[in-house]
Each structure stands twice: as C-alpha cells, then as structure tokens.
Recover the amino acids of this structure.
C-alpha cells in the first residue's frame, strides 16, 4: 500500500532553516508528481510546492514561499525534500507530503514546523 512518511519538523527561530523529508513506498515513485502541503491552525490546507515526475521537471511554489523554499526529489531513494530557508512565523504549520494516484490523493501523517521569535 501507499505509504508516505515525513520527518524533519522542529521548533526553529525566525530566520532559520529546516529540511523536511518524505520517504515514499508502495507505488512507482518516479512516475508521479510529489507535493508538499501545509495546514496552519484555523486555516485550510494549502499547497506549498510540487515537483513533477521527471527531473528537472516542472516545479511549482506557492507565492508565500517562492524564493525561500526549495523542493527536490531523489528518484533512486524514493524521497522528496522541502528545504525551507528564511522561515517566518507564518510558516508555522503541519507539513504533509502527498501524491495523487488517480482517483485518490494520498497523505502522510504530517510533521510539525513551529517558528518562534
């Protein structure tokens, strides 16, 4: 079965950096676009970044993170990364790794990122 396991979330000071990882299994990783979403308290889950199957494939970022976050993937190891730099308070959220394998979207359990002053 499809499994997505995130790691790397932490408590970090404003301006700091974190790298999130998501290890995928149970499907042909190199075939699918991988995405990172986040959900902040009281807000809806939003797309942060996505990376197409073929590297260097199409990469997309939310306006709020463009220029600060970098998504990448290692198709040999079935891992997708999210490098987060210049973190600010508004980046506090649970971050989820996700893949759409029609007709279903699959999610990881999430990893908490908390940015403090």
């Amino acid at each position: 079965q499809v499994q997505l396991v995130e790691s790397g979330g932490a408590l970090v000071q404003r301006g700091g950096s974190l790298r999130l990882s998501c290890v995928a299994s149970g499907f042909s990783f190199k075939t699918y676009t991988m995405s990172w979403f986040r959900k902040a308290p009281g807000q809806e889950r939003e797309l942060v970044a996505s990376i197409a199957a073929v590297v260097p494939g199409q990469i997309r970022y939310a306006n709020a993170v463009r220029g600060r976050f970098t998504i990448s993937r290692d198709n040999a190891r079935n891992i997708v990364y999210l490098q987060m730099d210049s973190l600010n308070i508004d980046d506090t959220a649970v971050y989820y790794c996700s893949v759409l394998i029609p007709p279903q979207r699959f999610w990881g359990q999430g990893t908490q990122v908390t940015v403090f002053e």
